[in-house]
Amino acid sequence: MYKLLIIIITTFLSINSIKSQDFTPISNETTFKKAYTEKTALTHSLKSNFIQEKSISLLEKKLVSEGLFQFKNPDKLRIEYFKPYSYLFLMNKDQITIKNDQKQTNISTKSNKIFKMVSEITMECVNGNVLSSKEFKISIFENNSQYMLKLIPKDKTLKSLLTEIKIYIEKIDYTVGTLEMYEVSGDFTKMIFKNRQTNIPIADEIFVVN
After folding, report:
1. Cβ(184)–Cβ(161) under 8 Å?
2. Alpha helices, DSSP H only, in 41-155?
3. Could you tell me the CATH number of the domain that includes residue 183?
4. CB hemisphere CA count around 195 (13 angstroms)
5. 3-state helix, strand, coil in the chain (%, to 5)
6. Which of 8, 37, 54, 70 lies 20 to 30 A from 192 at CA?
């Protein structure tokens, strides 16, 4: 369950794979932070199909999943997996619901520290506030077409799960291009978002499971 939460910390991804050695430390960090914060503040909703690729150290082949991601500002998130299995993750304010074919689990972030922390980080990645996150040490790099945020966990619990997260942001429009997550176990996760739609109407009802 916690590994699923690790996967959804991030939100916007691209098809292209990027090599870290192409990046150098950013030349003007202040200008980037200002522009990125202004751009993400304009995103009130997001809907996108996604493909998730996960490499597990003990398996030769990648595990590939498909689903639909939906976000509504300020605190509603729905991640639904369709292939190869059915799985639903909902975040609505301080309530989290996880549902599969067998059961449904409801969790309050108020009573669970790790879920509270992960839910806050998830929203920060979606709304652009990740730059001011207290949970990570953040370094910023760039190349000709992209910025890269390297997030190193500072919290003890997160450090036991993740070694680092890399977020690649397109310079042309400040949208997040690629996200890479490296787990302590050696596993690696990447998600690819397709057919992305921003600032479209999304009903509140889809963030509730009856």
Report:
1. yes
2. 113-127
3. 2.50.20.10
4. 10
5. 25, 45, 35
6. 37
Round the CA-based radius of gyration of the chain to a whole number and report it.
Answer: 16
Residues 46-99 pLDDT 10s:
888 888 888 887 777 888 999 998 989 888 999 899 999 899 999 898 888 999
C-alpha span between 146 and 112 (Å, rounded): 36
- Domain region containing 137: 2-207
User: 10 Å Cβ neighbour count for 147?
Assistant: 22
- Strands (DSSP E) along 56-187, which ranges? 63-72, 76-83, 87-92, 95-100, 104-108, 136-142, 146-153, 162-170, 176-183
Structure tokens that stand for 82 in this block: 């369709």
**Residue 144, both tokens:** 């000709």
Global pTM value: 0.75
